[in-house]
Amino acid sequence: MLIVSFSCSKNKTSDAKEDSNSQHPKLILTAQGVKAIRTNLGSIPIFDNTLEMVKAEIDAEIEAGIDVPIPKDYSGGYTHSRHKRNWFVLQKAGVLYQILDDEKYAKYVKDMLMQYEAMYKTLPLHPKTRSYARGKLFWQCLNDSNWLVYVSQAYDCIYNYLSEQERNKLETNLFRPFADHISVDSPQFYQRVHNHSTWGNAAVGMIGLVMNDQELIDRALYGIKDLKLDTKEKDDDGGFLNKDGKAGFLANIEEPFSPDGYYNEGPYYQRYAMYPFLVFAEGLQNVKPELKIFEYKKGVLLKSINALLNLSDANGDFFPLNDGQKGMSYYNSALVTAVDVTYHYGDQDSGLLSIATAQDQVLLDDSGLAVALGIKNGLAKPFNKKSINLSDGPKGKQGGVAILRNENIDLVFKYASQGSSHGHYDKLSYSLYEKGEEILQDYGLARFVNIEQKGGGNYLKENKTWAKQTIAHNTVTQNEMAHFNGKYEIGSQHHSVLNYFSSDNENIQVASAKESNAYPGTEMLRTMAIIKNEDFEKPYMLDIMKVTSNKANQYDFPYYFLGQVIQTNFEYKTPEVLKPLGSKNGYQHLFVEATVKAKNKNSKFTWMNNRKFYSLSTVTTNKDELLFTRIGANDPEFNLRRDPALLLRRKNTKNTIFVSVIEAHGSYSPVSESAANSKSSIKELKVVYNDETYTAIKITHINGNSKLFITSNTNTSKETPHKLVINSKNYEWSGSYYFK
Amino acid sequence: MLIVSFSCSKNKTSDAKEDSNSQHPKLILTAQGVKAIRTNLGSIPIFDNTLEMVKAEIDAEIEAGIDVPIPKDYSGGYTHSRHKRNWFVLQKAGVLYQILDDEKYAKYVKDMLMQYEAMYKTLPLHPKTRSYARGKLFWQCLNDSNWLVYVSQAYDCIYNYLSEQERNKLETNLFRPFADHISVDSPQFYQRVHNHSTWGNAAVGMIGLVMNDQELIDRALYGIKDLKLDTKEKDDDGGFLNKDGKAGFLANIEEPFSPDGYYNEGPYYQRYAMYPFLVFAEGLQNVKPELKIFEYKKGVLLKSINALLNLSDANGDFFPLNDGQKGMSYYNSALVTAVDVTYHYGDQDSGLLSIATAQDQVLLDDSGLAVALGIKNGLAKPFNKKSINLSDGPKGKQGGVAILRNENIDLVFKYASQGSSHGHYDKLSYSLYEKGEEILQDYGLARFVNIEQKGGGNYLKENKTWAKQTIAHNTVTQNEMAHFNGKYEIGSQHHSVLNYFSSDNENIQVASAKESNAYPGTEMLRTMAIIKNEDFEKPYMLDIMKVTSNKANQYDFPYYFLGQVIQTNFEYKTPEVLKPLGSKNGYQHLFVEATVKAKNKNSKFTWMNNRKFYSLSTVTTNKDELLFTRIGANDPEFNLRRDPALLLRRKNTKNTIFVSVIEAHGSYSPVSESAANSKSSIKELKVVYNDETYTAIKITHINGNSKLFITSNTNTSKETPHKLVINSKNYEWSGSYYFK
């Protein structure tokens, strides 16, 4: 890598003899990058537009004047919002100074930093006491860390503009005590593996890189030296403070990411956590390239961005696994960072350029320039999401998430570990999408993030009583209890196990996984497939949930559909009065809207949503009950959406199997008032074989054609040859499943 | 008008001596038009594209072969669908023959017509007996009439291609008996004022024009000569068969359209009815220009299209007044006809060209050519919908519908007559929209049109028990009874009366109307305004409902909001079990989700829908009750949507006033997780004066600014000067209202 000595500051106190470590900027922007950006300005549309937007924003801020208020408010209050705004403004003004070479921006940054310095040196703890780790500018150290992650970039940009005396003043009275407060003075926040700590590590490390302070850099990478914390204490969210004593940025990469780049809390929190991971890594790569941070753990940081992008639907919205707010997507600004950094520091995947084009903005730094040039040069290609299996756990041995895709159908099958304190009790659950629209939904979280009127914008109590509960998910609830009895300590010790994943055959994508710990004594093996068969209009989903238990139980098996009931082949009764289905574990939130005993061998249900039809066919016996339910009981503040479900209930049963097909089909136009292909194409769904080793399902189309799907319940290696006799007919194949 | 003698048929049996009446085509396409179309082909993109699409469609039909099955099915069944398809195919093939001058299309039309001739001459009544007026090809005369409206166009196109002998055969065995069956043989269908009869009239008239048969033309225009029907009989929908003996096409124009062009059943049925009105009028204009049909009743036919287009929201969806299915819009093919014909035969309004551009297709005839040329020549301008007051009733004396618009807010205020058999009991009701999204909804109809699984696609019983009921609408229900006690015979005798309408001031649009008959002894005067005031982010709605009664009643006043509850200033209680609010008149369909006694002088409620915030502020006393309700009780087949409402209940009250403001404000982004302007800006809403003559409302913004709105309850002429003292202060103004 060529290092070009470059400086634009008139006040600079150092000279060309300095080595690269004492050059500035060096952290995110580099001197060489600034030179390249200036050369290309005016001819790189997406970069030019972003720059113009940022310039207009910062010019308006400069016009409005600086405000550094004495901290007093929680999130949403004025002082919180102002300090938050300041960190963005400082970072952007620093960048503008470098790119536009206009001193007014440097002066603005300097003036504001000096006001912070004047205030901070005597500032007590923030007056609000709710946090387990109080900050000084903000009510929690997390936000103080956010501030420093951004402001260290601003400091780097005007470093050479400042006199040595000015730098000493800022470092002595502001940056060093600031870094100490969020680390050595707040070990319960800093010294752990958690997304909060990642922000803390990055903040300390980034200011350390700018100040060339090896002690801070080491503290960032490895945690506070020689400090051990109580491993049993918990934080505000119920997570362990420091379960196994690990800490520091490298440990924070090590633990939450699987080798495939899956982040253990799921995509919603990965999106939040990625910024400090990437921006500190970028700084390390620029200042300490010998660390090879992007190659750490086989390049997991950049792999994780690929995983994250694959964990989004056709609109770029992240699948709401665990606590995830629907609508969060790769249009979030953290994903602009993620896409640009991955493109620049990774292998220049041209698919990323199409996402950057959709985002319509880039970072104003070296990586943003690389993306802008790529787009300008016409290199952008579609980002093709494919079926993918993402292992979970630091070593990829704690289950995972499989995404099966065919045409416009996406199936998200979760067989992961608990997912830290934001995890849900949803072993072997799934959600199903068509072109970014939910067919069967995952509820997501129960929270109106940052809508102050709804519980201050924080997690609502229904997140625990409903959203995390097993019955809120498309999986089996046994005896009306949550998996692991809803206990985080137990759930955290276990994970589901992959049986097999197969996406080799373009027409048949299959994932199969087992859960043995959610209900002691009960084993659940779920095999899910997306099958493209020319007899059907669209690919359909086949779902085989095999339950084996050492005692008789009640199993509840819900389908969280959305939209309106069109047709059933069972005659339900609707009650005059709606009562809750149960009293706890989420059941208290479900109203029963209709009930019936199943009568047919297949129970069928067609619904319509967003002008498209969907049908469920499921194998039932005359002992089964079918219930239409709706969320909303015991919801005294209307915190929950009134969404429906069809629930299949099987009582007093030991071993059993739930077999279902979900078809997406047809459409309705209210303009032409015509309904196309509005009925299910399944004539019959039948379990033709089922033992410990194999399960075989026959799917018969209304045209009479039938297909047989056999799944291996145990021996699933790709090469293994299998033989099976069903109804006197011989079947032979090799691999995990048979389909013909 | 220049008549160009033009003929393209090789087999033509007539010659240039013929007058214009014996030239063909002459009905919709004209000989002159065909010449102009051929000249322009290839240089008029929207026309060329439509032509290409139609050609591909018809070529495929020709390839597939002709099928003219013996009639046997209801709608949805094969023979029904096939004959319906045939009428479109014949009409299009005829047009292709003329435009492309390719005999294969003429031959195809001739061959199919001959098959119809062969079948029809011995065809009995359709075997299905459900209709009050059975057809022969279809189960109801209505569909037979649809067929003839289209097929007469096809016959016109190939008229000169046929030999005289062939024409005689078709006319004698098919067209004349066909016209007789739907008219003289089915007077209960034909001889009335109703959209069904309009189709019948048009069918008879159009074939009459092609055949140059004055008797048929007269029968079409004036009804069956010397025939009087029983005026008390009813049809399948409960409408009177022939209340006052009027019949024929002119009577069908006279009765349902007001002088402003409002169609008495509302836009959904107007859209359905418009095709025969316009296409027959087009034929009359071309063949009998001396009738000046487009000037009939001061040009009401084309005025009605302007009214219809104004009865749509920002997306072009028609407001679902009376029985109206949501999503029906000006993208419906009948509106392609409406827009093109109105442009061509009207005054070439360039706004229509922008709608035609959005429709992305034109008629393949003279009017479609005119539109295509207009678009090609860059004449298209936006179609600006403005505030408009549309009178109802044949003479415009039966109330009306007012639409108040400002920026993106549309208020639809209905003070019309009953609206025939498709009318709802919704006097003085309204619905409110922002940019095509519902803020406060009108439920529309309870029907899944043409979705066979839901009651055959027909009206569901909940249409009567819920959708038509007063409590289903945003208006006052007294003593849990529907307006007119839900009796069509009574409702049909009355209508509301305009108090005043004012849209002169761009910032304040007001409509005020009175209803004296819905509840005998009770008078309701509602004044609604959309007010743009710079203190507020968006225009807000002010609603003043003044109720005067000769006895104490219970008044229920619902707000059918959509979305999620964000905040209230009242502490409601939610019940453990949901019970219906009542047992009849629609109340049996509402579950009570929460209740509370009002405590504040203003009750306030903020909700969020589609990422935007809305707030209601309403004047209450501590005797008022507030209830959150949800539709869905006593709905044994899930025919109703589970939509919420907030219901204000005032018991044991004689005279009263409901005063409310609805604000649209702010937004929420799940991508940036930020909420903007999420709270109401109203500090106080206060009735400062209220008597028989005037009502004055003071609206105070949270910034302290306040406005006074005074409405005149009686003397509302624009010129009248008014004087009023409120709290010792003098107010003087002229006109219907005061706002300052």
Secondary structure blueprint with pairings:
The structure is a homodimer of 740-residue chains.
Chain A: H1 31-40, H2 45-64, H3 78-100, H4 103-120, H5 141-158, H6 164-182, H7 187-190, H8 195-211, H9 214-222, H10 249-254, H11 267-287, H12 296-310, H13 333-345, H14 350-359, H15 366-376, E1 388-391, E2 400-406, E3 409-415, E4 429-434, E5 437-440, H16 461-467, E6 477-478, H17 488-491, E7 497-502, E8 508-515, E9 522-531, E10 540-549, E11 553-559, E12 564-568, E13 590-597, E14 602-609, E15 612-619, E16 625-631, E17 644-653, E18 656-665, E19 667-669, E20 674-676, E21 682-690, E22 694-701, E23 706-712, E24 721-726, E25 729-734, E26 737-739
Antiparallel strand pairs in A: 1-2, 2-3, 3-4, 4-5, 6-11, 7-8, 8-9, 9-10, 10-18, 11-17, 12-14, 13-16, 14-15, 15-18, 16-17, 19-20, 21-22, 22-23, 23-26, 24-25
